[in-house]
Amino acid sequence: MRLLALLALMLLVPVAAAEANHNPQEVDDGDLFQAWIDVDESYEEVKFYVCTLAEPFTCYAPQKVPREEAEANGGGSYRYSFTHEVDEGTYPGYRYELCTGDCKDNNRTKAPAGADDQQYPELEVVDLNDSGSYYFKVERKAAPPAEEEDEGLPALALPVAAIAIAWVARRR
């Protein structure tokens, strides 16, 4: 029984050691955002997937980084970094696949794992079109407030009319 608990704990430790984030936190059309994940040495490759989180739900070809190209953090952990340019009018989201061995189904871990994934509390997790495929959401910059049209002459007309009426009334 202890051996089973120890084995379960050993399987959870590599996943729990992962840290992920992106910069900038809010993007606009044409912006590049960089996403990264820090994981321990048990992973040999990380795949980075980007999809749009609103219609037309476009997914881009995944980027792959083997451990040899990752940045060593020391202590046996590595940082895998990726960049993506935001297309016009899109709402990007991203996820990772952490791979051991040949990266087949039983040798990969998805991050985020689900909508209630508590390993990355600083990131919002969303379900891509209710498909059961979960992504970290990248916020869009708020649209600038619409500028009020210059009322020009109409705004000036009221005070001028009031002064003219007062001047005429005074002269009588």
3D structure, described in words:
By secondary structure, this protein is α+β, with helices and mostly antiparallel strands. It has one domain (2-140): Immunoglobulin-like. It has two helices and twelve strands; from the N terminus they run H-E-E-E-E-E-E-E-E-E-E-E-E-H. Strands 4, 5, 8, 9, 10 and 11 form a six-stranded antiparallel sheet that branches. The protein has a four-stranded antiparallel sheet with strand order 1-3-7-6. The protein has a two-stranded parallel ribbon with strand order 2-12. The longest helix is centred in the last third of the chain and has 20 residues, at 152-171. The radius of gyration is 27 Å and the shape is elongated.
Total of DSSP H or I helical runs spanning 4+ residues: 2
CATH topology label:
Immunoglobulin-like
Low-pLDDT parts are: 1-17
Strand content: 35-45%
CATH architecture: Sandwich
**Helicity level:** 10-25%
How many β-strands, per DSSP? 12
State the main characteristics.
single chain; 172 residues; alpha+beta; Immunoglobulin-like; 6-stranded antiparallel beta sheet; 2 helices; 12 strands; 20% helix; disordered N terminus
Give the topology, please:
Blueprint: H1 2-16, E1 19-23, E2 26-27, E3 32-40, E4 45-52, E5 63-66, E6 71-74, E7 77-85, E8 92-99, E9 108-111, E10 125-127, E11 134-137, E12 139-140, H2 152-171
Parallel strand pairs: 2-12
Antiparallel strand pairs: 1-3, 3-7, 4-5, 4-8, 6-7, 8-9, 8-11, 10-11
Short précis:
The chain is of the alpha+beta class and 172 residues long.
